[in-house]
Amino acid sequence: MVEIGIAGLGFMGMTHFRAIQKVRGGSVRAICTRSASKLSGDWRGIKGNFGSPGGVEDLRRVRTYRQYEDLIADRAIDVIDICLPTVDHRDAAIKALRAGKHVLVEKPIALSLRDADRMIREAEKAGRQLMVAHVLPFFPEYAYLASCVASGEHGALLGAHFKRIISQPDWSADLTNLERSGGPGVDLHIHDTHFIAAVCGKPDAVSSTGRLVEDRYAAYLATAYRFDSRPDLSVTCTGGAISQKGRPFVHGFEAYFESGTVLYEFATLAGKPHLSQPLTVLTPDGRSIKPRLGSVDPVVAFTKEIQGAVDAINTGKVDEVLSGALARTALALCFKEVESVRKARSLRV
């Protein structure tokens, strides 16, 4: 059994706690938060942009810590699941690695490439796994798209557009603090830069327009990605916190293959889930096919993500989508896009 210690009990920490309940060969050994009420199991103040809000949890079988140092000193814990604000990722990960723990850290990996590189080096030095929890590849719609690209089921990918737009987040003070979160151009948009790099490979150049705050944080980005090995491949993405609260969240994609088109879009509209475009495959003979996906509960995607981390600890082999290297690439793309907006030209990555 891989014993997991969760650091941080905001919305993401709660989501990981719930997701781990269905992970095979993994269990929550301990949680760590400075909140006395959360340590007692009162999570009713926790809310986010999907899923059920917090309630009252039975923590009788879970060890509770107020100090992070006590959590990483617990010899029964194999991996620290870091769900702290992004500004704390570097220090928390390095401390855990030096304490002999594997680390699963929420995305983004860090707020600078220097910090990301240091975390990767520390993991190599410690002989422990550093995994970054990018959950998007585990959502069934995105997993299906990735499988289409990898298998060539519909021929080669010719072009794709991704989007991820939110309103200003009001469920987390950390997300609205640009210095602590990196802003929407990092915390939000990195979902798609990571997925694009995972599915298409690392882009060789980006060309972006958008809105910047303080000339360094992106509130909104519209980017075209160029691949030297496939100059005819057109991949674009829009992302940011620019919507009104009537539609506080939307994400999706259109992907164009030689012999098929794959469509998907989901939103929260006027406070209710709205599947504006179910996952659909359009075929050359004019048919419209809706692939079977199984459960589309977002928490299931987190279960699959954490299952991947547990399996990596057991086998010593990390899935690329959880790797620190790919997480660093995704972060580098976000920064390069901001630079492209600032310089008003295409830039090599």
What this model shows, in words?
It is a single chain. This protein is of the alpha/beta class. The chain folds into two domains: 2-134, 3-Layer(aba) Sandwich (Rossmann fold); 136-301 and 330-348, Dihydrodipicolinate Reductase, domain 2, CATH 3.30.360.10. 34% of the residues lie in helices and 29% in strands. The chain contains twelve helices and 15 strands. The chain has helices at residues 11-20, 36-39, 68-73, 89-98, 113-126, 140-151, 173-176, 178-181, 184-187, 190-200, 298-315, 324-343; strands at 2-7, 26-32, 63-65, 79-82, 102-106, 130-133, 157-166, 205-213, 217-226, 234-241, 249-257, 260-269, 272-282, 288-289, 347-348. A nine-stranded mixed sheet has the order 14-13-12-11-7-10-9-8-15. It has a six-stranded parallel sheet with strand order 3-2-1-4-5-6, with helices on both faces. A hairpin with a 3-residue loop joins strand 8 and strand 9. Helix 1 (11-20) crosses helix 11, helix 5 runs antiparallel to helix 12 (324-343) and helix 6 (140-151) packs parallel to helix 10. It is globular, with a radius of gyration of 20 Å. The model has no long low-confidence stretch (mean pLDDT 95).
